[in-house]
What does this fold into?
Amino acid sequence: MVQLHECDHAERLRRQLKGPWLNPLLKKWVGRGELDYEKYLRTPELLSLQMPPEERVVPDELLFQVVHQAQELWLKLLAHESVEAVAELDRDALWEGSARLERLLRVARCMGAELGVMETLPPDTYQVIRRGLGNGSGQESPGYNAVRMAAEGLEGALERLLARRGASLAGVYSGAAAADLKRLCEQLVDYDEAFQDWLYAHFQLVRRTIGVDATVKALDGLPTRVLSGRMTKPLFPALWQVRVELTAGWCREGGHAPGAPRSDAEAAEPPPPVPLRSGGGMP
Ligand code: HEM
It folds into this structure.
């Protein structure tokens, strides 16, 4: 029997993976784009959107492209779902709107986890891929821009809903408004937080791949350090501001005085002071 060299095995498998494949259960050829599954999902177009092996500067370039493309699709979905949520809030369909916000949250969480896959790209390999990226900037991502714009729309829908119900954000968070409004606001905060977590995951990815520092410049010339301020920029600023206002209006009066005894027993018999041990070690 002729022994195949290790590389020959891989090369033969690579050729086989170009398809098509005869599926033994279906007894049909898969990979020709003729089946209903392939037509509906447009797999021939979808799977041809990544560079072919001969154009990749390193094999890991497929990982780099797939994760980016997948993230763009998720961002597209976030923007679409946000528009649907605007329509639901505007017609006072709050249960439907609430279910939609749960979906937004789960997609954003999934995106943060997905970036973990990109963290397996070693920094030196990325340096090679980077040469082919031109002056591309993450700010040029259509999905990212769409999500931020859609979030403005969602914040507008919340404002209209509150106005129709004669409520304000301050009222929602002081118990003066109905509980359904508060639940909805908290779901928006959940989504916003998950979106910022995604940006934080991206920040860590950038940090371990090219470094975050005043001297490390992105391809568009921007120091990577600016990302640390941008990743906490909320989607719904008013919902974060109301917390600041709530705390500004907080007062100690009526609460527990600092250092005061917590129980009658503690008040009657204060525990003996415990001397601080200096120097360490066992007595
Ligand atoms: C190794 C992988 C990656 C590196 C080294 C990287 C690097 C960077 C750098 C240096 C910036 C700041 C400058 C700029 O705006 O271009 C940035 C921004 C950005 N990147 Fe990435 N990135 C990576 C992966 C990704 C992925 C997978 C996505 C998903 C869509 C993404 C989306 C973004 C977005 C939306 C921004 C703008 C964020 C903001 O300005 O707050 N990046 N990236």
